[in-house]
Amino acid sequence: MNRFLPVLLASLTIVGQSQIVFSKEPLSKGKWTYKNGKPQSVTFDYGTELTAKDIDQLSRRTTITRIVMGYAGVDSEYVTIEGDLRELRRLKNLEELHLCKVGINDDDLRFIASLPKIHTLEFNADNGYDGAPICTDQCAVHLRTAKTLRKLVIHDGRFTDQFVAKITEGLQNLEELSLNSAELTDESLRLLADRCKKLKSLSIASDHFTAEGLKKLDKLTNLETRTVSSPFLSKRNDDTKKLLGTWEYVSATYEGKPLDDWKDATVTIAKDSWTLRSNEKTTSSTWEIDSTRSPKWLTRFTRGGKVNFLENSIYRFDGEQLVICESAHLDGRRPTRFVADEGDGQYLIVLRRKDTKDRAESH
Predict the structure, then answer these.
(1) CA 312 – CA 214 distance, rounded (Å)
(2) What span, in angstroms and rounded, lies between the C-alpha atoms of 78 and 123?
(3) 353, 247 in Cβ contact below 8 A?
(4) Which residues is 265 bridged to in the sheet?
(5) Which residues contact 111 (CB under 8 A, 6 or more apart)?
(6) Crossing angle of helices 186-195/161-170, nearest 10°?
(7) Is 27-233 CATH 3.80.10.10?
(8) Is there a smaller number of Cβ atoms within 10 Å at the N or the C end of the chain?
């Protein structure tokens, strides 16, 4: 019997080698990455056609943590998939999914409820073709049970407040939400404020949001970035246009004491950025205003190396000058008066336009 042992070992070695090669070629389609010799992620470029067999084979690669199918958020950057996606429920280690599927429908998202580790989901809800299937309020039934979701990004939706009502019932640990749908109302803002207390980033658009509805979001104390778009909020753009341009410092005080180091500083305000240049250093932030407040609110968010800064201020125009009062406290408080007195932890800043060219071009 011993003379057969080398032959047996050789056979086992060949089998083992063939298994390793097979594991590194899960599908001929897609761009794969590996960890410890096992598939970890795959990207299918737009235009890829996946058959039912392809989906079945993909679903058997249970070590996968990330899948990209097309490029969600970009018109026509979709993949074509034969049949549905329910077999992907086998991917119990899947954490991140980006899906742009031609003809997507509510049932395509049914498998999401079976993924115990999913934390990021992005998809196009409507491919924009006449007569093509779309995702409706009904898909919320599947999404709301994915309680591990922390980031949800939905492009091109046709949802109502009922959709938001359903997902907020189950996704109360959501930290980032991006959603646009013309039919949403202030009720959706109220639901998000009441139920999703952990939201850090919110981008939402509709034809029906009002300034009154916007105030409901003030309950979200963890919110770091907020973008709310609606025609009814367009009157807020009047102040936005007045802010755009380059400003220089007239004066700056902290707790009543002058800050001479800032006398040569400038601030350049663009629609998407707030850039401070001082002492050969440049700091860039994002910003938003709420001109419906009294006094008016200015909020800036600055990303640092290890620390991010949320700066809560109030502002007003004094003729051609811009007056800002900013809190130095890190507990989220915002000034209520334009003062900087000893011990109050507040900056009082007065700016004037450095030139008029930027202002003229912004109108």
Answers:
(1) 17
(2) 10
(3) yes
(4) none
(5) 85, 86, 87, 88, 89, 142
(6) 10
(7) yes
(8) N
Question: Per CATH, which fold does 237-362 belong to?
Answer: Lipocalin (2.40.128)
3-state secondary structure 298-341: EEEEEECCCCEEEEEEEEEEECCEEEEEEECCCCCCCCCCCCCC
Confirm whether pTM is higher than 0.90.
no
Res 237 pLDDT > 80: no
Q: Contact, 94 vs 64, CB < 8 A?
A: yes
Q: Model confidence over 68-108: pLDDT tens digits?
A: 999 877 655 889 998 789 999 999 999 999 999 988 999 99
Domain ranges of the chain: 27-233, 237-362
In this structure, the chain runs to a length of: 363
Structure tokens at 193: 């404020």
Give the containing element (helix H, strand E) for 357: helix 357-362
Which three-class secondary structure state does DSSP give residue 229? strand
DSSP code string of 187-198: HHHHHHHHH-TT
Instruction: Record the tokens describing residue 320, joined without a space.
Output: 């051609």
Q: Is 263 helix (H, G, I), strand (E, B) or coil?
A: coil
Asked whether the domain spanning 237-362 has the same topology as the one spanning 27-233, the reply is no
CA 230, 138, 164: angle at the middle one, nearest 5? 40
Measured distance CA(42)–CA(22) in Å, rounded: 16
Q: In whole angstroms, give the CA distance from residue 337 to residue 293.
A: 13
E strand spans, 156-217: 176-180, 201-205
Measured distance between the N- and C-terminal CA atoms of the chain, rounded to whole angstroms = 92
pLDDT tens, position by position, 3-12: 444 443 343 3
Facing residues of 258 across strands?
253
